[in-house]
Specification:
Elements lengths: L2 H7 L8 H4 L8 E2 L5 E4 L2 E5 L12 H14 L15 H14 L3 E5 L2 H12 L5 E5 L4 H9 L3 E5 L4 H18 L3 E6 L11 H9 L6 E5 L14 H4 L8 E5 L9 E5 L1 H10 L1 H4 L6 H15 L2 H19 L12 E6 L2 H14 L2 E2 L1 E3 L8 E6 L7 H19 L14
Parallel strand pairs: 3-12, 5-6, 5-7, 7-8, 8-9
Antiparallel strand pairs: 1-2, 2-3, 4-10, 9-10, 11-14, 13-14
Helix pairs in contact: 3-12, 4-12, 5-6, 13-15
Length: 416
């Protein structure tokens, strides 16, 4: 069959609904200043779907640094990849600042978290090595695993017993190939909000003698967890046991870009072998200078304290109201409801149009059939009044859902 004919006949599990959902349930346009209240479809909505955890995008001092850097440097400089012509003192300064803050030997900047994290995984292993990874690892990590030409074993989410079983399988293979084992997990899982069991994984190595190197993607934990904001590893007391730590600027830093921290030897190796960075243009100067300022504010703790005031109030209020938040122990707040895909669209439409609340809707195949997941992302910019209003609204939609007011087997066509 012709490739394009196949595509025309099969848009994929989500793409098949594009006609009725595009621009509303999928690819929605939130407009205006990045803030708790933005504009959607011409109406003001209280939004819980922006990964602006520390509220840094709203701070005047951040906006001023961003604007001045763009004025001074433009968006083009430096031209070329880091290895060829894109190296600057500012890039090195940011890397040194991050390494110092994370208390790790060295750091390397990545243009984007997705392509960078995928490339880190791809670069670290050869066909003789084995990868063991959590089933709910982010797509970028899974894509990195897919590039691996050797064996890989997945264990059920946060299941340490099954992780141990897969490590046993991996050990048998590397005993023959002479390779090593790379274990990949996350500091905070972005959909469920629960932290990866870093302490238990570290104990497999320290107390049970398993040999592996630990890679942790802490995109959601960096800046939000731990006394210093170093992330889930710090919060669990095992920060120093993480071999390769991945973080992004797209969450707590409210910007674009990412980083990888490890030993100097590993960072030097990655700098010369990550294809997504070696063959890609360097991170633009305004983003680098803006990140230096953001890191300075992240260290100050003030915004993190504001974030947790909101997150704790939101989660406590929802739990007290009887909502299922799963096992979250981070700021990510997943509200899990039962219903069909059709009910999910009607419920979300009601939230946005009649109550002015915009939250991300997550449905099958991202979550199991029969589940509606509304993911709320609290930020330091939200107010306790925002929290109180949201909890009251969620109580109302839960009553409607249970009463069958959203009942439908068909998706609501938002473009009809």
């Amino acid at each position: 069959m012709d490739i394009f004919e196949r595509i025309a006949g099969n848009k994929g599990p989500l793409g098949q609904h594009a006609k009725g959902s595009h621009g509303y349930f999928t690819f929605p346009k939130l407009e205006g200043e990045i803030a708790p209240r933005m504009t959607f479809q011409g109406k003001e909505v209280l939004t819980w779907s922006i990964n602006n955890y520390l509220g840094l995008s709203n701070l005047p001092e951040v906006r001023e640094v961003d604007a001045q850097a763009a004025k001074d440097w433009g968006l083009g400089y430096p031209m070329g990849a880091r290895m060829m012509s894109g190296q600057t003192s500012q890039h090195e300064q940011l890397e040194n600042n991050i390494a110092e803050f994370m208390e790790m030997e060295a750091c390397y900047l990545l243009n984007f978290g997705y392509q960078g994290f995928m490339s880190v995984v791809d670069s670290l292993v050869t066909r003789n090595d084995v990868i063991v990874y959590d089933s709910e690892c982010h797509a970028c990590l899974v894509d990195g695993v897919r590039l691996h030409q050797g064996k890989r074993f997945v264990f059920p989410h946060n299941d340490i017993d099954k992780c141990r079983t897969q490590l046993d399988r991996a050990n048998k293979i590397v005993a023959e190939t002479g390779g090593g084992i790379l274990l990949i997990t996350e500091g905070v899982f972005g959909m469920s909000g629960d932290q990866g069991k870093l302490k238990e994984i570290v104990d497999l190595r320290k107390k049970e003698g398993y040999k592996f190197r630990l890679v942790c993607d802490d995109a959601h934990g960096f800046g939000t967890l731990g006394e210093k904001g170093q992330g889930a590893g710090e919060a669990q007391g095992v920060h120093g046991e993480i071999d390769v730590l991945l973080g992004t600027f797209a969450k707590s830093m409210a910007s674009v870009g990412a980083f990888v921290c490890a030993t100097r030897d590993v960072i030097d190796y990655l700098a010369y072998n990550m294809r997504s960075q070696v063959f890609a243009k360097s991170l633009p100067m305004p983003l680098v200078i803006g990140a230096i300022k953001r890191l300075e504010l992240l260290k100050a703790k003030e915004q993190r304290a504001k974030l947790w005031t909101i997150a704790n109030a939101l989660q406590k209020g929802l739990l007290d109201a009887g909502f299922n938040l799963g096992n979250t122990n981070s700021c990510v707040t997943p509200v899990m409801l039962s219903g069909t895909l059709g009910e999910a669209t009607k419920l979300t439409f009601d939230l946005r149009e009649n109550y002015g609340i915009f939250s991300s809707i997550v449905v099958y195949p991202v979550v199991p059939k029969g589940m509606i997941l509304l993911r709320l992302i609290p930020t330091a910019s939200h107010s306790l009044e925002d929290v109180e209003y949201t909890i009251e609204v969620f109580k109302k939609i839960k009553v409607k859902l249970d009463a069958g007011e959203y009942h439908s087997e068909e998706l609501l066509n938002a473009n009809a």
